[in-house]
Specification:
GO molecular function: alanine dehydrogenase activity; nucleotide binding
Shape: elongated
Number of domains: 2
CATH superfamily of the largest domain: NAD(P)-binding Rossmann-like Domain
Distance between the termini: 31 Å
Family: Belongs to the AlaDH/PNT family.
InterPro entries: Ala_DH, Ala_DH/PNT_CS2, AlaDH/PNT_CS1, AlaDH/PNT_N, AlaDH/PNT_NAD(H)-bd, NAD(P)-bd_dom_sf
Helix content: 25-40%
Enzyme class: oxidoreductase
Catalytic activity: L-alanine + NAD(+) + H2O = pyruvate + NH4(+) + NADH + H(+)
Radius of gyration: 21 Å
Structural class: alpha/beta
Strand order of the largest sheet: 3-2-1-4-5-6-14-15
Number of helices: 12
Number of strands: 15
CATH architecture of the largest domain: 3-Layer(aba) Sandwich
Amino acid sequence: MKIGVPKEIKNNENRVGITPAGVLELTKNGHQVYVQSTAGEGSGFSDEEYKNAGAEVLGGIKAVYDVAEMIVKVKEPIAEEYGLIKENQVVFTYFHFASSSELTDAMISSKAICIAYETVEDKDGTLPLLTPMSEVAGRMAVQQGAKYLEKPIKGKGVLLGGVPGVEPGKVLILGGGTVGIQAAKMAAGLGAIVTILDVNLKRLRYISDVMPDNVFTGFSNEYNIRKLIKTYDLIIGGVLIPGAKAPKLITRDMLKEMTPGTVIVDVAVDQGGCFETTKPTTHENPTYIIDDVVHYCVANMPGAVPYTSTVALTNVTLPYVIKLANMGWEKACAGDEGLHKGLNIIKGEVVYEGIL
């Protein structure tokens, strides 16, 4: 199969769909890989490394789309790419269709086969292709939140870890999934007081068992959220409904109950966000302020640490890419129930319930 790896053109997106190591595995399986020139530079991979691994490096993005039977990307195609996608072409990437009707309509019109990383499932119901980026984003949420709590950036002026004689900052995490666990690890490691809210009591029991003593759990409901937001410094939204829009757990009126300079980080922004006031931002302009509350809603957080993110992503996507290339998308998806759940749009027809 001819596999294309275009350069990501979303604002400040430095990741790339496949590492040179991934290219080598694909060429060993008899496939041709076409990589757009400089596609890997942001992640620390040169054109020469891709050539040495067996790829052919092409000069422009159109050349890659023109030659490829399957496109392997990181982020969803943006408007400039819509017209490049061909009928019957397989596009394997993060799509997050639920948050963009424009993207959905464009992919329907393209009549391509759209397989979304974020809805591929393991046998146990987990999301293997979303997990590594959720791990990165969860850890980054605390890093970024800690930074934006600084007073020069309009935060409260709170150091999350505190110092002797001064109590540490308080972090509220909505959702006890991968994002929540990783955020809690980071915040707890800094010495903050951490509370995780979730509706799954089995998950809360697990979190209570494995987390250090400065991490607490609570049941997620509006009453508890309203109570806690009044005294917490950093609030991280990490809820997920696979393939569908995230629920709005913090409403506009709740902002007035927070103390000025509170920072909220919405990791669910790709799925529409779990705060009512969420709007996607970029690494170039990552924050905005509403009612004296600092919002950090960058839609591609892991793009800021592209080497780590690209290697982590290729580690999990490559077996699926090889399967799709070896067998073709129809046989591969028919024989793998988890991969089949990654099918979102097939030749103009929406087949994933979450985006209907």
